[in-house]
Amino acid sequence: MGEASADVVTLDLLRAARETVRTSPLGVVRTPTISWSQTALPLSVSCDVHIKLENLQRTGSFKIRGVANQFARRPRGGHFVTMSAGNYGKSFAYALKHYGSKGKVVMPETAPESRSVLIESFGAEVERVPTSGLMTAVQRCVREENMTFLHSYDDLDLIAGHASLGMELLEEVPGPDVVVVCCGGGGLLAGVAAAIKLSGCHKTRIYGVEPEGACTMFTSFRENKPVWMEAKSVASGLAPPSAGQSLPVPFIHPSIILPSIIHPSFHPSIHHP
Ligand SMILES: Cc1ncc(COP(=O)(O)O)c(C=O)c1O
């Protein structure tokens, strides 16, 4: 699935994924969207701010949405491997247990130990490696142990599952002026942006935000190709060694999505309002 390109994404595909997510046996929560107090912003700024509380998902993050759609479209009882700093790994391991599948999460050594412990408690294997060795370890599992790789951000089923978040948001806050999404590999940003743009909200500006020390998507846009870097950030979930290679970048690309990546050294040439 990861080889598909952005032009296969249609509103019908996203609606089907949303239904899969809604009815998933993994129990994906329709999270509340709350109004944020105006006092959180300078008084001169007049706007309504809404926050979608994805931390209330059963596995603690939005990742369960994409995972629900990925696992619904893979055979039960498979043997899977993924790489994750923790949040995707938690949802992946939770799904493995539910679907009676086996699997391994390859984690960066910098990820909190508590996350490995939790992932192992679901019955998944954990291998901790330096960040630069993540992909090599995954490839070895595929080659030598015949495991199927499930990507944690560069996968069409995952992105379509994450799009359900954008669809729920539009039902609660129709036609928003601006949507701000955190960005690691770009799977969430791609899904939310696809949902918003394909739903016809062409005026909505979508901003991806990533850590200064892990600005892989920003740099990929600037160089017009996916780049790898030694990412450094305490936000380990937002610091994969590269932005999505085949899917997120074209999804987020101006021809379809028109977001901007906010970064301290923001460069106007990649700003598409
Ligand atoms: C809490 C949280 N937010 C955002 C992200 C980034 O998601 P993506 O890699 O799809 O951009 C992650 C990734 O692990 C995460 O754990």
Describe the structure.
The structure is a single chain. By secondary structure, this protein is an alpha/beta fold. The protein folds into 2 domains: 6-35 and 49-61 and 155-270, Rossmann fold; 75-149, 3-Layer(aba) Sandwich (Rossmann fold), CATH 3.40.50.1100. Helix content is 36%, strand content 15%. The protein contains 9 helices and 9 strands. The protein has helices spanning 11-22, 63-72, 87-99, 113-121, 134-145, 156-172, 187-198, 216-223, 248-252, and strands spanning 33-36, 49-52, 79-83, 102-108, 125-129, 148-149, 178-182, 205-209, 259-262. The chain has a 4-stranded parallel sheet, sandwiched between helices. A 3-stranded parallel sheet has the order 7-8-9. A two-stranded antiparallel sheet has the order 1-2. The longest helix is centred in the middle third of the chain and has 17 residues, at 156-172. It is globular and about 55 Å long. The structure holds pyridoxal-5'-phosphate (PLP). Residues 61, 85, 87-88, 153, 182-189, 237-238 line the site of pyridoxal-5'-phosphate.
Could you provide a short overview of the structure?
Residues 28-241 form the Tryptophan synthase beta chain-like PALP domain. This protein has 273 residues and is an alpha/beta fold. Helix content is 36%, strand content 15%.
CATH topology of the largest domain: Rossmann fold
- How do the helices and strands follow one another from N- to C-terminus? HEEHEHEHEHEHEHEHHE
What structural class do you assign from the helix and strand content? alpha/beta
- Unreliable stretches, pLDDT < 50, 5 or more residues? 253-260, 264-273
What strand line-up does the widest sheet have? Answer: 5-4-3-6
Q: Can you give the helix content as a percent range? A: 25-40%
Largest sheet: 4 strands, parallel
Under the CATH scheme, the architecture of the largest domain is 3-Layer(aba) Sandwich
CATH class of the largest domain: Alpha Beta
Q: Number of DSSP helices?
A: 9
Work out the radius of gyration. 18 Å
Overall residue-averaged pLDDT value: 85
Q: How many domains comprise the coordinates?
A: 2
- Give the distance, in angstroms, between the N- and C-terminal Cα atoms: 31 Å
Distinct ligands, ions and cofactors found in the model: pyridoxal-5'-phosphate
Beta-strand proportion: 15-25%
Number of DSSP E strands: 9
Shape verdict: globular
